[in-house]
Amino acid sequence: MTRRGASSVPDLVARARDGEAAAVARLITLVETDSPVLREVMAALRAHTGRAHVLGITGAPGVGKSTSTNALVAALRADGRRVGVLAIDPSSPFSGGALLGDRVRMGDHALDPEVYIRSMGARGHLGGLARSTPQAVRVLDAAGCDVVVVETVGVGQSEVEVAGLADTTLVLLAPGMGDGIQAAKAGILEIGDVYAVNKADREGADRTRRELRTMLSMAERPEGAWRPPVVQTVASTGEGIDGLLAEVDRHAAWLAESGELARRRTDRARSEVEAIALAAVRERWERAGGSDLHALAERVARGDVDPYAAADEIVAGT
Amino acid sequence: MTRRGASSVPDLVARARDGEAAAVARLITLVETDSPVLREVMAALRAHTGRAHVLGITGAPGVGKSTSTNALVAALRADGRRVGVLAIDPSSPFSGGALLGDRVRMGDHALDPEVYIRSMGARGHLGGLARSTPQAVRVLDAAGCDVVVVETVGVGQSEVEVAGLADTTLVLLAPGMGDGIQAAKAGILEIGDVYAVNKADREGADRTRRELRTMLSMAERPEGAWRPPVVQTVASTGEGIDGLLAEVDRHAAWLAESGELARRRTDRARSEVEAIALAAVRERWERAGGSDLHALAERVARGDVDPYAAADEIVAGT
């Protein structure tokens, strides 16, 4: 435990479940920083998780992710639901992870005790998001959030990651962000459960929506599969946000009815467990032979050994 | 070996080194598909690698990456250099990896025997790009390419990956892709060695360049460190491309003189070896207990066990 406050893990979990924001924040810090008590925290949270709906929000820079998250949080609060928000920022040397303070990002909700907001840096290392975000989601889930929103910058790999974390993945687009082929290149067509064309008051919004629908309709989906809806929003004014939330809720209901929720969560748990186990193996290598690894890498870089042969040496030493 | 052609690995490598495009293509397929002869291929390539300069090109969708790659390839060819291009597409259900044929993407160079072009799908799985792209780079390197261009869609995680692969990372921006804060959110400020504001004939290009320079100048860099230049280009007309290439070459020269090239390549080899070794461990888990892993994931999803305790079970069984 941290010395300040001197709370035990069970005590922190109890306070988080009572809705104490400081306890929630402390627990997220503990899971984010690979604290020595991480395992104890995870064990203590276990019995209280699985209730929250996890909504991933992604899209290219500039589509209005923060504004849309803000508007969705307002709609969820108007509906009386408790909300957690995890905003993932790729690490930046200028920000140390989170570029803007939470209050700046989510100014409308900073003082609402039923909304937990947390910026998480991906810390530059590959798979960092994959490793600590699920644990932070568990904290917010255990703290009684009805919905946990995971907002991530990015297109490509990190999008695939957020889709892996979420029960429902919302993909945002905006008019004029490039044509349909660009959208497809960004790999977004495979991951969305719900699509929103934001900035729908701008020129080209109808075209973007039409193109997106056409491309989505080209995918072969089995009978009974979910067909991702496309809605239009103007997040800055709140226009279309209630409709968007209705589609998210409809998807949540479909997930539960179809059995897909259990399947997704099992897949997610599997990736999570694998990621933790792989990290443990990697740490063992670092501890056991950090300098060996460096010497081996130098030999590979010089062309004295090929990378597969080098990897065999490491695995043999596991 | 594949039955068609019935070439041995040493024969394929010899033919690739002689500049035979079909042999290069076959070798890339072998390393991309985790073929049983992958290890043999890597061992055979080892002695012939380390000469090519690896240029990573990245940026958000719509900035003109393919057009810029095309223009840079033209400039490199005009200079008499042999070029390899790896275009990374996140997998898409609509494309099976590569959305457009190589000829469509890089039409100007499709018939030039001194240019190898290959689209690679990231195959949806995490770390897929990290695993097979370095091997494909080695194939092109061994085939005598002076420059290997790795063009990747994406912002965020996959950008960090491309920076990990490249000797020189070129980050493209375009005017009107969102303000400076958006650029910083996308994590691009930490990875570029050279920046180009493409579509410099459009409104806002000067502002984008100015903002970018200001943000770059805020980073603390030690004495003697490389200071990333910002150039302006109109890739569609070729304007500014020679100047861009000159900056890339200047960076290549700096890398060699400063000793940074060896350091980067050692770091890269280390990540590569670790990724291969981790994949081997993971495959061992799958083979040894794929169904155990699924049962364990179901228990985690149901909340019967926490993910860290589950991971301990797997690691203990390694």
UniProtKB/TrEMBL annotation, chains A, B:
SUPFAM superfamilies per record: P-loop containing nucleoside triphosphate hydrolases (SSF52540)
Keyword Zinc-finger included in the entry's annotation: no
Keyword annotations of the record: Chaperone, GTP-binding, Hydrolase, Nucleotide-binding
Keyword rRNA processing tagged: no
Family according to the record: Belongs to the SIMIBI class G3E GTPase family. ArgK/MeaB subfamily.
Lineage, broadest ranks: Bacteria, Bacillati, Actinomycetota, Actinomycetes, Propionibacteriales
Pfam assignment, any one: MeaB
Entry-linked CDD domains: MMAA-like
GO terms for MF: GTP binding; GTPase activity
Name of the protein in question: Methylmalonyl Co-A mutase-associated GTPase MeaB
